[in-house]
Design goal:
The chain contains 4 helices and no strands. The chain is mainly α and 76 residues long. It has one domain. The longest helix is centred in the C-terminal third of the chain and has 23 residues. The two termini are 32 Å apart.
Length: 76
């Protein structure tokens, strides 16, 4: 299981899944009654959560596992 989480595509897929679930939870918890464009349908919040979750998890993965450790050490 530990090796699976160290691969970029699985780590990012977890971010997409978690982001989509949290986007739906956001839609349920904070409904829009005045015609908001973002929160009017669950599809918009799920899509936004999906994109944000994948991006954030991709960024976290790059921080945890830099591709070239020599470049990281030389920059500090």
């Amino acid at each position: 299981m530990k090796k699976i989480l160290h691969t970029e595509k699985y780590f990012t897929a977890i971010g997409y899944l978690l982001g989509a679930v949290l986007g739906y939870v956001y839609f349920i918890q904070f409904p829009c009654t005045t015609g908001c464009a973002l929160r009017s349908t669950p599809y918009a919040t799920i899509l936004l959560g999906l994109l944000l979750g994948g991006t954030v998890f991709q960024f976290i993965f790059e921080i945890i596992n830099p591709k070239n450790k020599k470049d990281v050490k030389n920059n500090h």
